[in-house]
C-alpha cells in the first residue's frame, strides 16, 4: 500500500479509517490515596487500514492521555510512573504553577525508567491546559505522550457542554509506522520542524462526535503537534473565541471567516450557540485548502432560538502590566535555521562555527547562544513588570513559550495589536519583532523556548529567573 502525502492529508475518512488499537481516552481515575496515576506504557496501534502496527507511547494505554479535571484553586495530584526505557518528566503547560512542580530540567531531575514522581500543585486559573514530557520532547510527544488538563470554573456555565478536542499531526511512513528517521534530523530541525502527514483529533482520524443541540457547546482545542502551526476553520456555525491559552478574553469575540491560528502548544476555547447544524472542524494546509479533521453532530431538539449575548468567561485576575513606557525591553534575538546565514554561536560556553554547531545537533541561537544558557535571559524580582521583544531574525515562524506566566503581546513591528489577549505561547512570524509584557509574579526558574520541539532541541531555549 502506497500513500502519497496528498492522499494522506486529503483522502476520504472511509478509505483511511483508524483500524483500531487504542481505546478512546477516559477521564483520569483516582487511586485510593487521592492521586491520579499516569503510567507510561507502549501500546500497539494501527494508523492505516491494512498497514503495519506501530507503537504509541501512552499514559494509561490511551491517546490522548486521560483528561485530568479539577476545579479552579483545586489541587492536582498526579503520580507519574515511568514505564519507558528512558527518562522522562511531566510539564504542565500554561499553569502558573509552583516552580518545583513545573517539570522542566531546571526544576527536577529526570524520572528514570521504573521510577515514579509525584506532582502536587494548585491550579490557579480556570481554563484549558495540557500536560506533556519536557525531556526528549520531540520523540516523547511525537510518540503520543500528552493529555488535557481542564481547570473548571468554580461556578459551572449554565446550559453548556464541554468537548475537548486534542489535535495532533503525526509523521508516519507509508506502512503506517511512526517515522523514526526524522528524529534528530538536522535538516528537519533547521526548517519548520517535524511536520506530520496524519492528523488526529482525540487520537482518531476524522472522528464523528456528538453534542446536544439544546445546549451551548464549548470546544476546547489543544494543539499538541510537535511543530505544526494550525489554521483552523469551523464550518456550519459562527463560534465565539472565549479564551486563548487558557485565559478568558475580556469579551467574547466572533471568529468570523478568519482562520484561528494556533501554534504548537496553543489552545483556544470556542463557544458555539445552541442549534442543530453539523459542525465541521477543518485545518488549512499550505495551499490554504481546508482539510476536514473532525465532525460534531448535534442531537436532540432546540427548545428556543439562541440569540442572546455571548458573555465573556470570568477572568482569572492576572496582574495587569502598568506603566511600561519607562521599561527598557529585553531583546531575545532569534537567529539560524535554513536560509538564516548564521555563521556560528556559543555552545556550552565556547564560540563555534556553524559546522560544529550542526555536528552537535544545533541549528538555532538565542542572542548568540545555541542550547541552554548558563545565565538567565532575564533576572527579575517578584512583582517586576517585564517587557520582552521577541526579535525573529530567521526565515521561519517560532512559537515562543514562557513557563509559569502568561504574557500579553502588545505590538508586532511597532504596530499595536487590535486585541490584547494573554498568551503562554506566542507565534512570532519570520522576520518580525513581537513585543510582550507581563508581571513576573511567580518566583523560580522558568524556561523560555520555542515550542516547535525540534527547534527547541536544536538550540532555541533559554530561561528567566524570578527572585522573591
Ligand atoms: Cu521555532
Explain what this protein looks like in three dimensions:
The protein is mainly beta. Among the domains are: 5-151, Immunoglobulin-like (Sandwich), CATH 2.60.40; 324-467, Immunoglobulin-like, CATH 2.60.40. It has five helices and 33 strands. The strands form seven sheets. Strands 10-9-12-17-14-15 form a six-stranded mixed beta sheet, with no helix packed on it. The chain has a six-stranded mixed beta sheet with strand order 23-20-26-31-28-29, with no helix packed on it. A five-stranded mixed beta sheet has the order 11-19-18-13-16, with no helix packed on it. Strand 14 and strand 15 (247-254) form a beta hairpin. The protein is globular. The termini are far apart. Mean pLDDT is 93; it is low at 1-25. The structure holds copper (II) ion. Copper (II) ion is lined by residues 398, 450, 452, 455, 460.
